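Just wondering, does anyone understand what follows?

——
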Amino acid sequence: MNEIRIVSCIAILTSLLFMTSCEQKEKAGELEGKASDIKKTEFGLVIHGGAGNIYKERYTDEQEKAYKAKLEEALQTGYDILSNGGASMDAVESVIRILEDSPLFNAGKGAVMTSAKTIELDAAVMDGSTLNAGTVAGIKRVKNPISLARAVMEKSKHVMLIGDGAEVFAEEQGMEMVDNKYFFTEKRLKEIEELRAKERKEKAVSAIDLNKEYKYGTVGCVALDKNGNLAAGTSTGGIANKKFGRVGDVPIIGAGTYANNNTCALSATGQGEFFIRNVVTHDISALMEYKNMPLQQAAEELINVKLARHEAEGGVIGIDKNGNITMTFNTKGMFRGFVKDDGKKFVAFYSGGEIE
């Protein structure tokens, strides 16, 4: 009798397990169906022109229009490349060259000045498909440092080149060279004189120490192309009144710039020293890879939690392998924008919505 009961119990348990397995498969099938209904973005591109004390009252209508027009020009350039099947790296380089050539941003022409009244530029690119990267620092004579960073990645055995050596390499690669004064603008000349006067009076060493009215300027671009490849690039003049050959986060891979096809592409802007110490862009990617965090949540964790503990300011733009984007910052504003495969351009400066 006991044997019959045991056999009966086994039969019932087997039946229950089979039913449970069928239910799980059915639910998995439903979830898989729902997931397949979600349309991935075929391609997309995000840009920034620096984060900082950017607020409505600070800019005239004419200045707003100028910034908006330049950001939209950059977005359109990137869109044209990506929509025609171009590579994410080509889009990133072309977009950043436009921003470097504009005196509106702290990169290339119009970059901030050092305490010695010179301009020293940093830039970086990273290819998410290979994890190859190229960075340059302390550049004084190369018209477009972002193109030099790409040349370091593709045409040298190194990741980072600095100063005179980087410029010798630039000349060998046929890069367009300019006098350092090419980058000067009247706005930056006036700014450095004000900063040096305040420095003599207040014993501070940089714009950040003196006055948060000074924007933490940098430009950056991240892109996803039709082949699913991600790329990131960043370019900057650094901090106004910087000394002693200071280099910030931009050319430090994993701090100011990072791209990985398994996760996302990122470009940062802000107080570079804190982005270096917290390895911000790599940390965002790591949270996505190891904790399966969505891009937006990972960016907020770094910018609004981790950096906030240090009272550090800045922002980050990113795009993941599915075309989801982030434009996260903890300052009053960040020049930013994006475009996806539908061609609609979004541009914003301040906390809140789109600039009409």
